[in-house]
Design goal:
This protein is an alpha/beta fold and 576 residues long. It is 41% helix and 16% strand. α5 packs across α6 and α9 packs antiparallel against α10.
Amino acid sequence: ANGRLLPLHIRKRLKFMIIRQTMEFDARNCGAEGAGQSEEGLSILDVLRKRPEYLRANFSEKEEWAILAEQQTRARGKVARESYLALERSEENTSAGSDGEVQDVSYHVDDLDLDLHEPDMSTIVQVAASMSLKKDDLSRCYDSLSGGWRMRVLLAKALLWRPDVLLMDEPTNHLCIAGISWLQRIIKEEFNDMTVVMVSHVRSFLNSVAEEIIWFKNKQLEYYKGNYDTFLQTIEDKAAFAERMQSAIDRKKARMEESLQASKAQALKHKDDKKLKQVASRRQKAEDRIGYERNAKGHRFKLNRDRIGYFTTMLADVEHVEQEHSQSALRFSTPEPTLPRFSGPLIVAQNLSFTRAPASTTSDEAPGPSASSTTPFQLTDVSLNVEAGQRLAILGANGQGKTTLMNLLAGELNPCSGSVQIRVPSFGYFKQDVVAELGREDLPALDRLCSKHPTVKRHDLWKHIGSFGLGAPQTAERTALKNLSGGQRVAYAFAELSLDAPSVILLDEPNSHLDLDALVALEDSLEDYPGALIFVSHDISFILRVATHAMWMDGGRAQRIELDEIETRCLRTTPA
């Protein structure tokens, strides 16, 4: 090109696939036949055949020098900055015609696309079978599937297209305990050649599959090697180190201030202006130089090694020691319930039986693709009793009737036979779909609570939701509930549930939308709850900390089990 040598950067296109929290597949960048379409009405086969979206992952030479200039100091940083400025000047001198020529070259390089040929039918059937999807199931409507089966379809899609990067947003939300164990095995055995990036709040899952933790904090990403427990230990170690460093800095400042005050007193006593100027100069130097004396590894602090990047001052910000702390603003403060004076169970269920046609099954009992569409759902002879201070966990695979049992206990459904007695004047019920329900609410949290409790003073209600971390005016009064995060809606649901201080609480998957800090806050609250608690959860860490008793459901029947049997049951159970 007119005797000039133009650098040619081949832009690698990485194949990306995203499994969203809603289990929907994004049809953008999926070719002409799928562009702009939604998943509504698509069969399982249609979803499997759709090409995953892909994104460009590349940096120009100028961008690479800019990154190096930010990360390197001294000689290396100087070279990077000079190279970046030279490229900027070169771009300014490049003519418009030459620019067009470079773009044309890049366009042809981009035409060297990825191997994204549609898989043949035999391959689809083979991969689907590995996810327990039969050939006849492929014609089923994707939207009719439960969350667990949608996850199977999307994982089969990942196996078919083999993306370079698989992004998964809360992949465990719709899985039972056995399903989470199954997903852990799939990720470790089938996806070991992919980069898998996940958002998850299930600690046992993170400990099993994570090799690195990325912490999104203060609008920045921090990277930690190891699983979640290792991450927590690292954070504790950093906090302890920061505390020691801060104490050392405070002691050094105190000693220096004492010395300066003594010198200043001597100067004033003898009216020595020269010495006063020396004291002021020493004070300024002390403010500039007091800071870290040891790095995170305990070695002596070195500016060119421990302070990466380009800075205009030598020790600015070094003196600041960051104290690690929990970021979650959510809290769970359950009022003390008034317990009855009589002894014995607060909630009793005897020989509960329930039959329902499959057309009206809930999401928890939605049949899998291979299930018969004419098979009714049955719950048979379920009995339980829970006393004050007891916390019963209802466990089992999806489709075994956990949500149906909770609805029977709460009076949302009438049993075909048997009875339920709640021997207290009030109880609270946290429904599985409460987050979706509040997602349609236009009122702010405080206004909705006022409308439900018109006899309670507004100030008292504001104080109440404030105890759940929702007291900020922007959150309580100005933002509709539908615009709050899932975790904030869960906090509001608990605030509404606990206002009457119920002696019996029923919780159906309360931890699905909570971050890890809020989950710990919920655990702390439930551990101290003196009433009777029955809950459904698929988080083993949450169950083992909160539950005092456990019941396993299988085939519509319930059986009491010991807490130490839970993990063994998960391994033996086929996920639904």
